Recover the amino acids of this structure.
């Protein structure tokens, strides 16, 4: 299958871009997926299936390859917020939602680990589940791990995007889904886009309020991790006794 053409500097004659409709039918991404399975396709081919169409200037495979290049690969694309992705040339809100939904399904499948739900008993377990994904996020995000009596992860919803320190009034929301799922415990995690995982005073206040609310509801907070950039750059607030007594 011909490779998608890459953009050329202004003033240079752009190479001819092969379009999906011009390829032999068996070489088109959707047909290859049916015949060979997803593992046989390149990342840009899988992304092109989600995008479905390109633009008047770019074939869908070229749009997919450009997006992956601009966002630094799949991990960068997965961590791109919906508004930024929707504003990318050749994407738009509807396609951005499709891409975000696909990544979310993949994230949930990874958490379920083929049906055997992961167990969280330590800050290392929380970091192993969430750090690789959350360290790349471009805005602050608060995530929840909802645990059963054996510390298996029942769900891992995104609770808040923005500034976690501004979420003081949202402490009750931490426990809404936990109570619905009859959780035994919860764990919290959020990222610092600056890259520095040191908890702020507002982080400590928020954690203390969450711990106190959990004690009243008999759904203890196991830990609250703050993620920075790079391997091992995270802080367990329980280990540091920040917000925990």
């Amino acid at each position: 299958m011909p490779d998608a053409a890459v953009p050329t500097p202004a003033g240079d004659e752009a190479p001819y871009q092969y379009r999906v409709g011009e390829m032999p039918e068996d070489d088109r991404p959707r047909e290859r997926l049916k015949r060979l399975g997803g593992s046989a396709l390149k990342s840009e081919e899988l992304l092109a299936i989600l995008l479905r169409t390109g633009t008047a200037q770019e074939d869908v495979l070229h749009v997919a390859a450009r997006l992956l290049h601009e966002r630094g690969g799949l991990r960068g694309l997965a961590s791109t917020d919906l508004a930024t992705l929707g504003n990318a040339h050749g994407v738009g809100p509807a396609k951005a939602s499709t891409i975000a939904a696909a990544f979310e399904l993949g994230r949930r499948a990874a958490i379920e680990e083929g049906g055997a739900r992961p167990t969280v008993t330590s800050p290392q377990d929380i970091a192993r589940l969430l750090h690789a994904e959350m360290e790349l996020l471009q805005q602050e995000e608060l995530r929840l791990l909802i645990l059963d009596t054996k510390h298996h992860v029942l769900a891992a919803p995104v609770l808040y995007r923005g500034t976690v320190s501004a979420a003081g009034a949202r402490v009750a929301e931490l426990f809404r889904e936990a109570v619905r799922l009859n959780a035994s415990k919860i764990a919290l995690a959020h990222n610092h886009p600056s890259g520095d995982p040191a908890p702020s005073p507002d982080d400590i206040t928020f954690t203390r309020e969450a711990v106190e609310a959990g004690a009243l509801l008999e759904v203890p907070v196991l830990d609250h991790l703050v993620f920075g950039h790079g391997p091992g750059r995270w802080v367990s607030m329980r280990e540091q006794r920040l917000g925990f007594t």
The mean pLDDT is 84. Residues 117-236 form a domain with the Cytidine Deaminase; domain 2 fold (CATH 3.40.140.10). The first helix runs from residue 29 to 36.
